[in-house]
Design goal:
Blueprint (H helix, E strand, L loop, with lengths): L4 E10 L6 E11 L4 E5 L6 H8 L8 E10 L6 E2 L5 H7 L4 E4 L3 H4 L6 H13 L3 H14 L5 H5 L8 H13 L5 E5 L7 H18 L2 E6 L2 H7 L2 E6 L2 E7 H6 L4 H8 L36 E16 L4 E17 L3 E5 L6 H9 L6 E6 L2 E2 L5 H7 L3 E4 L3 H4 L6 H11 L5 H14 L16 H13 L5 E5 L7 H18 L2 E5 L3 H7 L2 E6 L2 E7 H6 L4 H9 L23 E3 L9 E5 L2 E4 L3
Parallel strand pairs: 3-8, 3-9, 6-7, 7-8, 13-18, 13-19, 16-17, 17-18
Antiparallel strand pairs: 1-2, 1-4, 4-5, 9-10, 11-12, 11-14, 12-21, 14-15, 19-20, 20-23, 22-23
Amino acid sequence: MTPIINIEKLRVTFGKGDEEVTAVKDVSFSINPGETVCIVGESGSGKSVTSLSLMRLVEFGGGTIVDGRMTLAGENGAIDLAQADADTMRDIRGDEMGMIFQEPMTSLNPVFTIERQLTDGLRVHRGLTGQAATKRALQLLKEVRIPEPERRLKQYPHELSGGMRQRVVIAIAMACHPRLLIADEPTTALDVTIQAEILALINQLKRETGMAVMFITHDMAVVAQIADRVVVMYRGDVVEEGPVEEIFANPKAEYTKALLAAVPRLGEMRGKAAPEPLRLVGDTAPPKPITPRETPELLLEVRNLTTYFPVKGGPLRRHVANVHAVEDVSFTLNKGETLSLVGESGCGKSSCGRSILRLVEPTSGSAILDRKDVLAASHRDLRILRRDMQMIFQDPFASLNPYMRLSAQVAEPLRNFDLARGSELQDRVAALFDRVELPRAYMRRFPHELSGGQRQRIAIARALSVSPKLIIADEAVSALDVSVQAQVLNLMMELQADLGLSFLFISHDMAVVERVSHNVAVMYLGRIVEIGPRAAVFENPQHSYTKSLMLAVPIANPRDRKQIGDLNFKPIPSPMHPLSYTPEPSRYDTVGPGHLVLREG
């Protein structure tokens, strides 16, 4: 079989002279028609640079293809992409080769509608115009399971959630049925249900069209679900290559063994009473368990929390409907414990966390933090209360000021609350850098000079600076590599054990949630459908949606793959309702100690 892509001795550098950095060294591998090759490795291993070199986009980021061949097989003979001119590459991009980029917000144009961006490639490469192009665009949105696709076509990227934007990027890449699909971390921002369906969809398209897939990821469970062959990269080199079953069953390279050992696996916490740190890449000894707290003490009590967002329409922009983001949510959180909120994109997890902090104003309900009602507090009282509750946002780069040095950003909350000045302020900031295991030399750096994991450590240091009682972590580790994710999670568990911190941990990664949680709440359409101790929810799920969610979790075993027929997910109903709509109150059945399940029907 003739490979679609054959890469031989690829070498890519950045910078010149003394500042030259070699990002990819002597990399060689091939991809056959209908084959999925997964490129795995930590951040900085050269995975994305290799993919950008194939599309000849690396040059726009300051990279130079110094040596090597990248051969694309075609009907009219093979083309060396390393030597192809700009016109040839323009014809190939989007048609012969499609690419799903890692960051959907920066890869979508903010000034064009979703419809315009979906139909661009169809017009250029397929000659579709008008209704035909719109019909195909609508079909693509349905394939990637976007709710209300007709409405989404007319919207702009900023009006969509992160998960929806990622699905749009996937639809654009697959619009012209390319012969090679390059997917750079395509499911990082997606929850397990959407991720499972996207992986099954890519597998189905691969079987039907013979499309080859180059899949870049750090999630070894995803690798097990989709890969035919695996290429393991480390610091710009290929350290191991082979069939997926052989890599998982009998890895040869020490780095591959360490990478597989660091992956949190669903079911590992069965029979364990308390959260347990993850094994770090390079560690040989198993992690030490955390001693559970003996006497639980209530910190946060949320009762009947409801948050609606108004929808305006008509020529006078009147209030015509509401989006029911959070609907009658109640739970409690003890001191020194972690409650995880899980569910699909758009289920209301982030809105719930932001409502408790009053970053968005709730419609009704109460949130009692250490005997003080946050939702009833005046703005002056709320400012004082915010010392006790902090937030770690999903995207650390967006939540840090690009113009401020890191020391100033960590010091800012201390200055705001007048907790320290002068040399004492500098000493406390330095101690916080030590606490999150960052060198003090980084204090004078700016956010763009750090990796994603290091930036997330700065966000944690800033949240810790005012000694809060509660930290809401909104997808705090979803975009991090396996090894960096393990380091950040271990840091959070260590801080919890040392300082008695409570975490409201918002995530879609069920294996991570199982590892760090004391209690778990599953959300769907703004409501908690099941809540209880971690072991009860994971080992004995009762609600039909919780069971579907567990079924969708990718297993790090290539012999246990999920087919699209196994994933019987119904379309997500719209959370938007007319003003006259009155929702039913949430009614729960108790199925075990602290284990509540929403009545269905």
